[in-house]
Amino acid sequence: MAKKVDLKKLWKSNYFKTAVAIALIAAIVLGFFLGMQLALGSAVPIRVVQSGSMCVDYGINCDGLLSLEHPFAQTLHKGDIIIIQKVDPKTLSANYPNSDIIVYDNPNGVTPIVHRIVAKQEINGTLYFKTKGDGNGPVVWPGTPTSYDNLPDSRGVPQNLVEGKVILRIPWFGWITLFMKGNSWALPAVIALILLLVVIEFILPAVKEKCRKPAQQKQMQSQP
């Protein structure tokens, strides 16, 4: 016959409370991400800016930490977290320099590109967007292929490669991700720290409890 679980006794256990807290945190984070996917219509609604190409003052002042600009200026810095919304390509603004910033798949690399729309055109029913980083020099008119950056071809970025447009930036916090990505020892160090916390929180108390019980029993037996 299966032993009945005493829920009240189980809830009094610190180990059980800790496990429930960890599970709740994981569920909240996952739920938040899935909720953003549904709300914004983007498979990857959160990304981190990995270069200073979108910063007007290109260079050392574009790292998001030492920037001379206001942290919430209408430009992007390395280390910014950006929120991306899936939109109808027809609604994207090409009113440069106040046009939309888009994220599009890079045909020549793994990391998507974040650039501002400079111009758009429709060819055979498909929209193409010419883009550039705000910090990558002035636009040269008319738009020759060498006037723009990282375009799949001279026509621009086809609408099927556009992930969405940037609707919000959160400065600085993306540096945590960049630090983890840029240092091969960072992830093993975090894993080691988590394992150490598990040992301190769960294993050591269990070992101490095991060692204490025989001592208590021996003491009780020795009493008259």
Task: Give the arrangement of secondary structure elements.
Layout: H1 7-11, H2 14-40, E1 46-48, E2 81-85, E3 101-104, E4 113-123, E5 126-132, E6 157-158, E7 162-170, H3 175-182, H4 186-222
Quick recap:
With 224 residues, this protein is of the alpha+beta class.
The overall pLDDT, averaged over residues, is: 76
End-to-end distance: 39 Å
Structural class: alpha+beta
Q: SSE order in H/E notation?
A: HHEEEEEEEHH
Shape annotation: elongated
Residues in helices, as a percent range: 25-40%
Number of helices: 4
Q: How many β-strands, per DSSP? A: 7
* Main beta-sheet annotation: 7 strands, antiparallel
Report the CATH C-level class of the largest domain: Mainly Beta
Question: What is the CA-atom radius of gyration, in angstroms?
Answer: 27 Å
CATH topology of the largest domain: Umud Fragment, subunit A
Describe the oligomeric state of these chains in a short phrase. Answer: single chain
Corresponding CATH architecture of the largest domain: Ribbon
Number of separate domains: 3
User: How much strand?
Assistant: 15-25%
Low-pLDDT segments: 141-147
If strands are numbered along the chain, what order do they take across the biggest sheet?
1-2-7-3-4-5-6
